[in-house]
């Protein structure tokens, strides 16, 4: 394992965005000129991306880079300019094909719901609002709960779980949706290594099944080797493409504007 530090003041002068050689013809999602502005503050500037099915794509960058904002803007959860297409059509008009897991801090853990209630919520769009869940939906939910190793906690209140257990439950809810696009906002924050391994196993399974998997990630340690592609962001795209393309010293120094330490598997 090699950890590479980059001192402040040794930043490259070029402002050209580094991109992979992959062409967008087979992209699941294409993002064109996406911008987000909060009053007089520009949160995202002219973001252009291609995201591919069958690959785990990580969104990385410093605090305040707009990582969570990017996912929310792509899904139409916040106002944004530009276009985001999934298979040639606006993504926000196809949210029935998307499973989205927000940051744990955005969830009200005092809400009186059991683990089973939360996972079944993933079947609401399939079953329809105010309709009873079918036997099939219950089977799918049970299988999702089993996959994340939380079946024995089925009747436990979500507020009584540890952070890692809570994250597993919401991963199960996402699996129960049987979606085509999976978006996870910092699912690895505050969890133990065992849960991290379970989550990455699931991500790899989803990618192997041809799903589009997008993960906001703040950890630049060894876990980064689980990503196929990366989007390096600091309010604009610094680099995007394969892990090898993005994890270059000049890209990381530009994004973090000074000293940065990260795991470089190619130098290990």
Secondary structure: helix percent: 25-40%
Write down how many β-strands occur, each being a DSSP E stretch of 2 or more residues: 13
Strands of the widest sheet, in order across it, are 2-12-11-5-10-9-8
Oligomer, anyone? single chain
Q: What pattern of helices and strands is seen along the backbone?
A: EEEEEHEEEHHHHEHEEEHHE
- Backbone CA Rg: 19 Å
What does this structure look like?
- The chain is built from eight helices and 13 strands.
- A seven-stranded mixed β-sheet has the order 2-12-11-5-10-9-8, with helices on both faces. The chain has a four-stranded antiparallel β-sheet with strand order 4-3-6-7, with helices on one face. A two-stranded antiparallel sheet has the order 1-13.
- The protein has helices at 67-74, 115-121, 124-127, 135-147, 163-176, 193-208, 243-246, 249-256; strands spanning 3-6, 18-19, 29-38, 41-51, 56-60, 81-86, 89-90, 98-101, 181-185, 212-216, 229-233, 237-242, 260-263.
- The protein has 268 residues and is an alpha/beta fold.
- The longest helix has 16 residues, at 193-208.
Secondary-structure map:
Layout lengths: L2 E4 L11 E2 L9 E10 L2 E11 L4 E5 L6 H8 L6 E6 L2 E2 L7 E4 L13 H7 L2 H4 L7 H13 L15 H14 L4 E5 L7 H16 L3 E5 L12 E5 L3 E6 H4 L2 H8 L3 E4 L5
Parallel strand pairs: 2-12, 5-10, 5-11, 8-9, 9-10
Antiparallel strand pairs: 1-13, 3-4, 3-6, 6-7, 11-12
